[in-house]
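R.M. (postdoc): so does anyone remember the format we settled on? I'll just put the structure tokens first.
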């Protein structure tokens, strides 16, 4: 799937492919022409991706080829052992977690579990967790606290599952409990938004000491489509809502909602999984080293202060 604004890039890529195939069939050397086209393609990618709107960044965050947690695990972590179930209702495949190792550091890895194919998305409910998913996540966090190992969460969801069955089983209570408990867990917590960080579904595993976002991910209290439907009574105003909501990583860094932006390769993560994973790995290692050295009381105090200052915007009059 190619996004609308990516069409100029795709046209050049198609020409490169055609020339390569023609070179093999006709045994004519088109190396110089291919090299020139590749330079043009790279320049086109850089120009397009350096001037994206909030709505276009949202499309990238939702790109079907964008790496998901299952892609990142083997590229970043070692010895991942998945743990199942919430010990109350069942096992939610939309949110997974377990022990893992990062640069010889044991940790608890928890994240939303989107799929790539239709079958995977159905199995994982498109990454929209139900109460049992959030209760499982909290159970694993408590295990991490017991064994004094850090927690890393990967956020990538449109939101918590809004169905009747989820509401019957206490969706709001499960998320609220996670917020309360995560604020007090006595081990370092690093959270990373890798794609779409939507509403309570995201924040349900998003309370941490360090909040990170990939360059072309988004983090929002509501989807632009939902916002447009409420404010304008028309979803076609979603691009306007996306700009107003300040959902992009640079905007949220400026507002001090996040601590750092993890750089994606030119052309976004879906064009280069390896480089994206390497950048994430370096950033996680850096913050794990910083957080591990902090006393528990200081860790909890700073975690509280991080969230207490969000939304504390003073006017020019100082009110």
């Amino acid at each position: 799937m190619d996004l609308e604004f990516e069409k100029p890039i795709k046209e050049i890529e198609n020409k490169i492919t055609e020339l390569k195939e023609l070179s093999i069939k006709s045994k004519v050397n088109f190396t110089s022409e291919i090299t020139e086209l590749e330079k043009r393609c790279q320049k086109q990618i850089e120009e397009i991706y350096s001037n994206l709107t909030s709505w276009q960044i949202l499309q990238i965050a939702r790109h079907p080829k964008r790496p998901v947690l299952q892609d990142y695990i083997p590229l970043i972590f070692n010895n991942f052992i998945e743990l199942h179930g919430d010990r109350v209702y069942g096992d939610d495949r939309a949110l997974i977690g377990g022990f893992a190792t990062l640069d010889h550091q044991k940790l608890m890895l928890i994240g939303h579990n989107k799929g790539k194919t239709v079958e995977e998305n159905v199995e994982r409910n498109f990454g929209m967790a139900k109460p049992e998913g959030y209760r499982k996540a909290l159970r694993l966090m408590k295990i991490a606290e017991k064994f004094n190992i850090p927690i890393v969460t990967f956020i990538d969801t449109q939101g918590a599952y809004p169905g009747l069955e989820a509401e019957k089983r206490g969706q709001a209570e499960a998320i609220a409990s996670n917020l309360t408990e995560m604020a007090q867990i006595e081990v370092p917590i690093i959270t990373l938004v890798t794609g779409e960080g939507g509403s309570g579904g995201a924040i349900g595993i998003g309370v941490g000491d360090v909040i990170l976002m990939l360059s072309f991910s988004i983090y929002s209290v509501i989807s632009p489509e939902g916002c447009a439907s409420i404010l304008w009574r028309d979803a076609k105003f979603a691009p306007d809502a996306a700009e107003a909501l300040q959902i992009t990583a640079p905007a949220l860094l400026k507002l001090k909602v996040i601590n750092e932006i993890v750089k994606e390769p030119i052309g976004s993560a879906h064009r280069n999984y390896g480089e994206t994973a390497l950048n994430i790995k370096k950033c996680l290692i850096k913050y794990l080293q910083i957080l591990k050295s902090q006393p528990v009381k200081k860790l909890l105090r700073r975690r509280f202060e991080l969230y207490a200052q969000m939304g504390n915007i003073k006017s020019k009059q100082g009110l």
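R.M.: ...and that's the designed sequence above, right after the tokens. Also worth knowing: The domain at 58-308 is CATH 3.90.226.10 (2-enoyl-CoA Hydratase; Chain A, domain 1). The mean pLDDT is 91.
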